[in-house]
Amino acid sequence: xxxxxxxxxxxxxxxxxxxxxxxxxxxxxxxxGAAPSPRSxxxxxxxxxxxxxxxxxxxxxxxxxxxxxxxxxxxxxxxHRIGADGNALLAMDRISxxxxxxxxxxxxxxxxQKQPGNDGFSFFAAARAYTAGRTTSKIGYKVEDSMxxxxxxxxxxxxxxxxxxxxxxxxxxxxxxxxxxxxxxxxVLDPNIFRLEISFLNAEGDVISDPAPTxxxxxxxxxxxxxxxxxxxxxxxxxxxxxNERARLLISPAELDALPDNFPDASNGKxxxxxxxxxxxxxxxxxxxxxxxxxxxxxxxxxIAP
Length: 306
Prior knowledge:
Radius of gyration: 40 Å
Distance between the termini: 115 Å
Order of helices and strands: EEHHEEEEHEEEEHEHHHHE
Helix content: 25-40%
Largest sheet: 6 strands, antiparallel
Structural class: alpha+beta
Strand order of the largest sheet: 7-6-5-4-3-10
Number of helices: 8
């Protein structure tokens, strides 16, 4: 208990009794039903408590920022992968459409350039060229500058009346040269595809590298149907490998140029897609793991029109 002195009107001193401590005050408030008073200065947060709370808040903000950054990286990686897959799918659709329009005749063989690394092929097809009014053109595919390119060039024919159309001009010295397509008629079909492999499916269901290997790289699909089943071509197998633009930043120009030769070529009885998947899974390439994981391989069987 404490006492407080006050001077009365008459000059005498009077003492008034006050509540002297918090416990008595709280008990009094509880009995009267009044609300407790605000916190006193002694109940405020200390500097250490404020610093600890601030440190916890900053730690949580840092964790949230790292989580958001990881989510953004995964999202961007997925978007680039989906974009590369979509471009490769469109390229395969374009090749399939051209092959299904191919003219299969004994006097119009295909030119298939089988070689270590990237292959190439060209053929006649019932398709319009960019500037031609006729509906038959020479179409070719190749990889150049680590990009898949498609070439199309108009072709002419001769008609001697009742005879069948002749696509090879009279006196042409070399049919192989006639299947050449000018470099100016090639356009980029897919900038992400850096590897192209061509193989074939025979009548027995086996993969063959080259049904009719010749010095001039010519394959007569019409004639191959009359020979033994193991060399009878039923479908062309197109296998491609691609890496998206963002992942190419992780690969040096020298590594990108050497990369196609590191992917195994197709051989008789050996599917190129399986060989490529095994190669990537083995980790034999010197590429970093993010760059290696960004490489996508795709394959399609395209039937040859009878």
